[in-house]
Amino acid sequence: MNQEKLNQKIGILGGGQLGKMLFQAGSKFGLQISILDKDISFPAAQVCPSFVCGNIADYEDVLRFGKDLDIITIEIENVNIQALETLEKMGKKVYPQPSVLSIVKDKGRQKIFYEGSSFPASEFTLYKDKSEILADIDAGKLSIPFVQKLRNDGYDGRGVQVVRSADDLELLLEGASLTEEMVEIEKEIAVVLARNPSGQVNTFPIVEMHFHPSANLVEFLFTPSTLTEDQQNEAEFLAKEIAQKLGIIGLLAVEMFVDKKGKILINEVAPRPHNSGHHTIEACITSQYEMHLRAILDLPLGSTDLINPAVMINLLGEPGYAGIVRYQDFEQCLALNGVYPHLYGKKETRPYRKMGHVTVIDKDLNVAIKKALFVQKALKVVS
């Protein structure tokens, strides 16, 4: 192997839990990694000696951060794309590429991309603001129920409003958005894959996701999937086709719906490590974090084989609690075999804030699910 690949200086825009876990994966290879985010309260600052304080959405901060680096990557899409374009013109390797980010960051452009490439997705309409949505409802052009999504800056359940009845119209979000028809969902699934500059593509086993009914956040997921072999092949094929069409370098998480008729529809994508891949740290031969680094360094992609069936639970701040965090019944859960907690190190909790995750593995998926449901019930994030 060319040692120069490992000697490249890598910069990560974003110092949250994903940035933290990326750094931890890179430490195995002795990689030179710097991370940019607003202040040292961010989780990645706990582990990264080269943590730089700055605004990932600010042109000058991102340019200053990236000018002495070889490779720049992200842990969140809400970054300054113009600065990344400038860095790319300066000869820096920017993965995912700014051209990919400009599509993915805007959910409206994402939907147009799927439509133009004939990928299966739900019908949608673009709106400048909520007054246009209300006008279309009054004119009979838009029917309830539907889902509203802000085109930009939505993540972790934010920027999404489900409208099930006329009473929900007062909850419509202000700003440029899209509406899409309410799909009768049988399952929600995700495919995480990696692609390197040499064109190698590796796909992780499909996961099935269960969402919190009000927070619109993943509560838990499991793998292997219960989809038929044909459905799994179709989902993997679609994910690979999207990656190839985008030309992405690095990880791509593709979230999909399976409707009541068994049809697979693309929901949205994320060009980075993703919540639906947390379990890979313990459950797969290569974690999604190591895989992302292998991809952007153009190293051979590792095996994605599943070592054991797994369930991943998000640890969300309990409703009604805000302040210095406390983890209730932590030791009781830690005493169980195959239970792996990951606390992100955030000092303060608030309702539905992501504070950590727990991966449960077992040779028997049903046993893993039972343990995970116990952990979900027992381990509470309070203050």
Account of the 3D structure:
This protein has 383 residues and is an alpha+beta fold. It folds into three domains: 3-94, Rossmann fold (3-Layer(aba) Sandwich); 123-181, ATP-grasp fold, A domain (Dna Ligase, domain 1, 2-Layer Sandwich), CATH 3.30.1490; 185-382, 2-Layer Sandwich (D-amino Acid Aminotransferase, Chain A, domain 1), CATH 3.30.470.20. Helix content is 28%, strand content 29%. It contains twelve helices and 22 strands. It has helices at 3-6, 17-27, 59-66, 81-89, 98-104, 107-116, 130-138, 229-246, 280-283, 288-296, 330-334, 365-378, and strands spanning 9-13, 32-37, 51-53, 71-74, 93-94, 124-127, 146-150, 160-163, 177-181, 185-195, 201-203, 207-211, 218-223, 250-259, 264-270, 310-316, 323-324, 326-328, 339-343, 348-349, 354-361, 380-382. It is globular. It starts with a helix and ends with a strand. The mean pLDDT is 95.
